[in-house]
Amino acid sequence: MAEAATGKPYELLLRLLVYRPLGLHDTTLPQGYMIPEPYLHGYDVAGPPPPVDVSELLGASGSWASGGIISTPADMTRFIRGYAGGALYGKNVVREQRRWIAGASEPAGPGRNMAGLAIFRYATRCGVVLGHTGNFPGYTQLIAATPDGRRSLTFSVTTQINQSQTPQLLSRLRTVQENFVCALLARSKH
Fold this sequence. Notes:
Blueprint: H1 2-6, H2 10-22, E1 43-44, E2 52-53, H3 73-84, H4 91-97, E3 101-102, E4 112-115, E5 120-124, E6 127-136, E7 139-145, E8 152-157, H5 167-188
Antiparallel strand pairs: 1-2, 3-4, 4-5, 5-6, 6-7, 7-8
């Protein structure tokens, strides 16, 4: 849609409208299955030990605009602070983006999940953060920030955790993530 609306390649739009304004220097949309070095290796732990490195089993480029971007934890932190804080859009877009409806990210994030336009609201026992989870063979992610973008967390696990494959582990993960959110929000009150 972005290419059709602007007549510019998606990769160029990312550089001009996202990477550059937020100072993302280690974020790419790679082509093919190879991941730019260095990177966190992702593992399949479902079988007998030892865990199997599945980092390049599937190319993230296959999902392209729906999750094919590869980034570092530092860039993910800069991104979620800017995105949740509204740095990329005007107030009218932010208001529309935050018209919350029932829905959860996949896998579900901490607390009670509500869906907006390309962002989720996680209402925990300690307060609210905005963000997104991600799930891919070998990886489970959560990035979240306070609605003003001043505080954030980037949470990475190097194995895939989701409701269909590991429901008990997902429940434990969501508890740990909520504890991280509580620690984040407690720090923002001081």
